[in-house]
Amino acid sequence: MNAPEPPEALPPRRSRHAGAGAGFLMAATSMCTVQLGSALTVPLFGQLGALGTAGLRLGWAGLILLAAIRPRPRDFTSRDLLACIVLGLVTAGMMVFFMQAIARLPLGTASALEFLGPLTVSLFGPRKGRLIWAAAAAAGVVLLTEPWHGGADPVGVGSALLAAGCWAAYILLTQRVGDRVTGLKGLAVSMPVAAVVGLGIAAPGLAEHLTWSPLWTMLALAVLSPVIPFALEFLALRHLTTSAFGTLMSLEPAIALMVGLLVLGQRPGTAATVGLVLVVMASVGATRAGVRPAASSERAPAFRYEPGPEPVRRDQDRAAVCRGSQPL
User: Fold this and answer.
1) Which long-range contacts (CB under 8 A, 24 or more apart) does 263-271 make?
2) Burial of 124 (0-12, 13-18, 19+ CB in 10 A)
3) Which bin fits 129, alpha (ψ -120 to 50), beta or left (φ > 0)?
4) Residue 301 predicted with pLDDT over 60
5) Domain ranges (residues) in the chain
6) Could you list the residue ranges that cross the membrane (predicted)?
């Protein structure tokens, strides 16, 4: 009787590439919805202001996620809950500081400065070649945004750099919370925290200008951004390293360029086109080099074939029984 053949394990390379593809698609979809939501929000700036639109989007997003996911206190440890609260504060800061920056700086300058956050995260990845992809992404973002064409208001620059720091912290905290809390429950706690902070800051300006029509419009825009993109980023960071994710965020200015062309009729120049090519190359390279291994607590044990005991030979058993001894 022959021993059974060991089953073949799933090729690890194939599963890793599948994880990279899923992470890339979720991150890319997230960036598309963010930029589309931003473009559709521009007409409301005159009525609600930049801080008002940000506060209302966060407020609606917090209510939607609480109602849809309904997190329970027993789903969190005290450390997990603290991480979710800090993530909410960082999320609010990221949006509020960036709105303050673009109120004082050209959008290109503010975007280039804010991208220093995820670019810094991308430099700390463990993979070989990370500096090449990060440098290509940085060069592409500079060409896309052309910050040398704008002014340099000190308050605006400081706000953009604070937004960059919040963005870097957001990437790291999102992965931590996503790993420790199942599903999107961490997001359902962090977003209401961000909503409270954002609405608290925006309340003085909203009280005089808010009417029912823009309120319901902001509900629809909140679904487009931040509910959908933030949920997708939570899931994407379960497949990608923070380094790869940070470099992938360099696609966002390129996506903004395309949305501006299609929605707002803004045509890119030669420098912007070259920058678009650079960030796409950097994003593809970061995705291939930055697949995230499974966490040690969740990693399936490697298959090891251990042969069973030797098959019993029945002719020897019968002879042994006849002699009154034990089987061989």
Assistant:
1) 263/36, 263/39, 263/40, 264/39, 264/42, 268/144, 271/143, 271/144, 271/146
2) middle
3) left
4) no
5) 16-289
6) 21-42, 48-69, 81-99, 155-174, 186-207, 213-232, 244-264, 270-291
